[in-house]
Amino acid sequence: MDVVKFAIPEIIFGRGSMKYTALCARRLGAEKVFLVSDPGLEKVGWVDELINILEAHQLEWVYFGDVVSNPRDYQIERGARLYLSERADVVIALGGGSPMDAAKGIAIVASNGGSIHDYEGANRIHRPLPPMVFLPTTAGSGSDISQFAIITDTRRRVKMSIISRTLVPNISIIDPLFLQTKPRELVLSSAIDALSHAIESFVSVIASPFTEMQSLKAIELVAKYLPTAAVSLELDTLEALSTASTAAAMAFSNAGLGAVHALSHAIGGMYDVLHGHVHPVLLPPVMRFNMEACLDKMAQIGRIISGRRRRSKKSTAIEGIETLREMFLSLNMKVRLRDILPDDHNIELLCRMAIQDVCVVTNPRPVTWKDLVKICEEAW
Amino acid sequence: MDVVKFAIPEIIFGRGSMKYTALCARRLGAEKVFLVSDPGLEKVGWVDELINILEAHQLEWVYFGDVVSNPRDYQIERGARLYLSERADVVIALGGGSPMDAAKGIAIVASNGGSIHDYEGANRIHRPLPPMVFLPTTAGSGSDISQFAIITDTRRRVKMSIISRTLVPNISIIDPLFLQTKPRELVLSSAIDALSHAIESFVSVIASPFTEMQSLKAIELVAKYLPTAAVSLELDTLEALSTASTAAAMAFSNAGLGAVHALSHAIGGMYDVLHGHVHPVLLPPVMRFNMEACLDKMAQIGRIISGRRRRSKKSTAIEGIETLREMFLSLNMKVRLRDILPDDHNIELLCRMAIQDVCVVTNPRPVTWKDLVKICEEAW
């Protein structure tokens, strides 16, 4: 085995753990925190509740809520200016992947200067970031655990992957109570995002025993609790999905992802499609494409997802992919690319962009932009 | 599930990863490192090799090698004085549990003042410690991962458990090449220590899904590779045992331990018995004692260790304990308490001391000092 690295934040996990936010920020030296969230979380009351916790601990705060799904480069620049002019010292993010990634972008630009575009790719951040405490309110993106931040370059219409160990937050506070105020559709699509993280990281060319056990745990939990979540969002189910998302993020942050994420970043940059909507469409055809390069592992996945072992590894792997597709259909998810894209005019361009994404590097089977076109045609 | 915490260091794992030590220390701000190791590692050449790496990166260093197995309070005081007088800024430990625990003790006293005895128990350390980079040379203690340090109070003849999140090193560099220069007997007894960590943390009252998956992985790896290691210390085997030890440490650091460790700390404090020699003696009787309180989990352990499932959970659990005992015997390990203690005069005193140990708190079945006496009598 080559030398592998494994880095995760300190994790505080459980019902009501949100109440520790101020203590955590204080421990990291906070006097004035920079809180990033979004209008949805303001409306449902979580932002106020968090501000109450900060104030109860005599922490000053600045609020930044100018964040949309697939956060934009210009929003990062605005946030960084506010952070600096207010002389904040610790970044807190409350939200799904978008507010968390926006918070990371703001932390980068505020501490390292320049523009967010300067940091696209791996290991481009050289100066320390402000301490970060993240509270994920969906169970899927894993941004509270990972060294990834995905920011949309609005001029090029592309989602930039920014990867650096310094993007791992100091503390992740994972409170499943947040999920109770989320619509079922979002809970389900976030769980599929976590599943996609788990599957892609498990077959990644740089997976290690430390990431593999997290990936498998996440696959097992999503396969078990996704059908339950479709019927009832009980707290035990939400807690299990939060555990799955956290485990999947520990895995992908350290093992990387693959072609599903490369394509989904390209699609999200060009069409502003919700990230969670891309996985049910792309996961099965990419798994079929990758199968020959990692048959043992695809059979392990197949066995967990289908609950069955067939005579050959290949048929067990295929059984898993079929079960997955049936599961997506039974959840009324869109499983054809034509259902989420307006037309097929830009497939080639999309694939030429996707092949530049850093996620391609860890895909288990070497892949060209032409392979991606074939995958998209299969998914169309 | 209650609120749980999960904190581990950044991990760099793999053959030859020792070479990253200087870069890691630099990243943590080092100009003059305080290197803790022991005479055994000096002799075999690893201390010189590490110093060469530091010097090649223009790092100043101070060496402290006055460490014995079951490190003593007075050694900690000496080390802390040296650290302060030399104005070192980062602590590096190279060794098994003893040099690593000594390094933690030195870091505590150097930064928090007073005497090491002031910090016995949980959460007594209030000021930040110097950054720490640890290189474990045995696969068992887990001190490079954990928030535990065990230091012998020579006056009271007791091993003090010191537990604090700040005792988690910043970076753990786990290089399986170190194990190649270790005698087989030490490799095996360290692996049993890791197994004991994995089993006790798995059934701990504060185990969480994050620690349980690590515990199970460690149990699986030790059960698989211990018999292999008894025959041949190939690098793949050593790497697997290192993985097991690391996973077990992630688990016990966050879930705690149980009665085996409480007793082994008391025995190690009074008789200076090697920590690794106590587990083959105590693990089976403590597992039998705990069984009724955690039958599901003991059956899971039994199934992994014996590779078989019996008709009832209880018989599967017992099968596991029996298989374990047979494994210890086949490895020529001592499995009776009378083989490692000079006499049975102090059993009651030992058990009255053990019941004070913080590890008792997380034991799955409530335990009194009289229960411990019965366990010792069974093991005698």
Automatic annotation (TrEMBL), chains A, B:
The keyword NAD applies. Belongs to the iron-containing alcohol dehydrogenase family. Signal peptide: none annotated. Its cofactor is Fe cation. This is Alcohol dehydrogenase. Keywords: NAD, Oxidoreductase. It comes from Thermodesulforhabdus norvegica. One of its GO terms (molecular function) is alcohol dehydrogenase (NAD+) activity. Residues 10-176 form the Alcohol dehydrogenase iron-type/glycerol dehydrogenase GldA domain. InterPro entries: ADH_Fe/GldA, ADH_Fe_C, ADH_Fe_CS, Alcohol_dehydrogenase_Fe. Residues 189-380 form the Fe-containing alcohol dehydrogenase-like C-terminal domain.
